[in-house]
Design a protein that fits this description.
The complex is a heterodimer of chains A (about 550) and B (about 130). With about 550 residues, chain A is an all-alpha fold. Helix content of chain A is about 75%, strand content about 0%. Chain A has helices at about 10-35, 40-45, 50-60, 65-80, 80-105, 110-120, 120-155, 160-210, 215-225, 225-230, 240-255, 260, 270-300, 320-325, 335-375, 380-405, 410-435, 440-460, 480-495, 500-515, 535-540. In chain A, helix 8 packs across helix 13. Chain A is globular. The relative contact order of chain A is 0.18. Chain B has one domain (about 20-115). In chain B, strand 1 and strand 2 (about 75) form a beta hairpin. Chain B starts with 19 loop residues before the first helix and ends in a 19-residue tail after the last helix. In chain B, strands 1-2 form a two-stranded antiparallel sheet. The chains are: A mainly alpha (about 550), B mainly alpha (about 130).
Amino acid sequence: MSPATPIAAVNVEAVVIFGLVVAVTLGITYWASQRTTSATQFWAAGRQITGRQNGLAIAGDYMSAASFLGIAGLIFYFGFDGFLYSVGFLVAFLTVLFLLSERMRNAGKFTIADVLSFRLKERPARVAAALGTLAVVAFYLIAQMVGAGIIIEGLVGINFNVAVIATGSFMLVYVVFGGMLATTWVQIVKAILLMSATVVLSIFVLVRIGGNPIDIFNDAKNQSEDPGAYLEPGLRFDNPIDTLSLGLGLVLGTAGLPHILMRFFTVPDAKAARNSVGWAVGVIGIFYVMTTFLGFGARALLGEAGTTGEVDEAGNLAAPLLAQEVGGGAGSFGGDAFLAIISAVAFATILAVVAGLVISASGAVAHDVWSNVVRKGRDSEHEEVYVARIAAFSIGAIAIAISVIGGSDLNVSYMVGLAFAVAASANFPALLLALTWRRFNTTGAVCGVVVGTVSAILLVLTGPDVADDPLINLTQPGIVSIPLGFAACIIGTLLGREETEAERSFDELHVRSETGLGAETGEAAPRPRQPKQPVAAATGPGRQGA
Amino acid sequence: MGTGQSSATGGSEHHREIDWEAAERSPEFKQLERTKRSFVIPATIFFLAWYITFILLAGYAPGFMGESVIEGLTVGYLLALSQFVMVWVLTAMYLRRAKNVFDPLAEKAVRKAIESARPEPVRPGEARPEEDRR
């Protein structure tokens, strides 16, 4: 193995390729900004995204740098246990497909709160849903931004603060000017870049190993510090209940992530929504299978480099260094070029995810809190979009500030875990029950979201990752906080007053969410405006002629 | 804008003419619901059970998971791959069933709801298409 080249010096190739990525995404943003004036265009891209496009965009929205670089690093260090993340992240989409994707599309408009407030008392339901959304986005966004700073600093040699501010600024430009249309296409471009880079890297690894994929495991095992344990579970997770808690958080939390659920509002109908999950599951599944090549491959080919300190403690540099190694090694043209490409892909990955997060948070602030709670629906659509842009700008600016102040000491991995736990404990129970349980009421929804959010946060704050004297010895709160969220929804409902109004509109919500009758229709971008359509024309066989 | 002012509340204003209560109770809708449930509930229980089994095996039986099927290829890794296959197969099954079975049933339920809708009330202020200039 060639001696380690410090990659802290500014990597010129990487900066050039970063520039290309930025140029393409800014071009997309300019194009999208010409087509984004109404609220439906700003938050839902006019509902004109096809199922396949949305599938790629979901993949781009979902596969964060934590998946790409983080899982490769976890497998590099912990072998089999790292791969558990890959499995959980994919299985999660069955929950989304079976329980929520079509129903969300049929019942909602722009945000999670639209679905809750459909049959519940509007203002408390919206405030509660906005709380759940903002809690998830806050943890996830700051984790991504800090991660971006650390990774870019490590890969390209740009100072942490500069990296965070640059990432945040591009994210703001995409969202504020290009809305959901720009966000969607940035995510699609990112998904294609990430998949291509991962396929190429995997093929290189396979060739270097000698063509037999099973040899990757043997070589990795032989190169690891503890060959007897490397291919067995247990190197990272020593508490099975904690592992189960993490797994449940991933599998149920994805169905409560606002930026993922929001993607279903961008397609024309429920059929496109479920087809987009089909595409997403194909792309994301292939990607997570390939994390085998990235993670075990990095161990097999980089070997002891990890133990001599070349790969950082979190393992984020395992995949980029692997690219450098299979490209020809440090100092060679091929090695440096491949490292630069992988770094740029990681950068694009982060940009796509943070843009999706910011636009979902802007929906919670502008559409839910401002337009429907503060202004009680009396604002004009022009005002709603204007406030949305201001909200997106403010949320992004706050996230940049917190990330710069908190700096690289913020623990990224537990914040991501927390985001999933809040999503699973607060958003998921309330949404599922609102869509399926006739008796469910406003008190139940508010109790569920508040208890789910607070219990997940408290369990992490009093858990072994943060507290010296942990209350419960679980780093992952899901196994406690998810049942608490459901229980609070149910107990709150039973203790609260029965809402006759809510129960009446459950019929409407139920029929609408299952059949699409009365669902929001799309809005083509360039065409000026269409007359209001009666329900029959929008959803089913013609009624006007009858 | 296409959806006008009522858009802020979810657009339900346009659909007053549908009798939602009757639509929800119609045999067509009930059949859709039953048919969907008969797939989704067992499938959800199955995938959660298989996933949780996998995680618990990883937690409580690391030795078994680490056993080699072929030198280097462990039981644990094969079970992990089985999770991927499960996701792809269940997704494909759901998409097929949705297209061939659920969609036609949903269409029937919608047709029924529209047929039995109360006559559309002519409300002042509800713009007819030709009035909606611009």
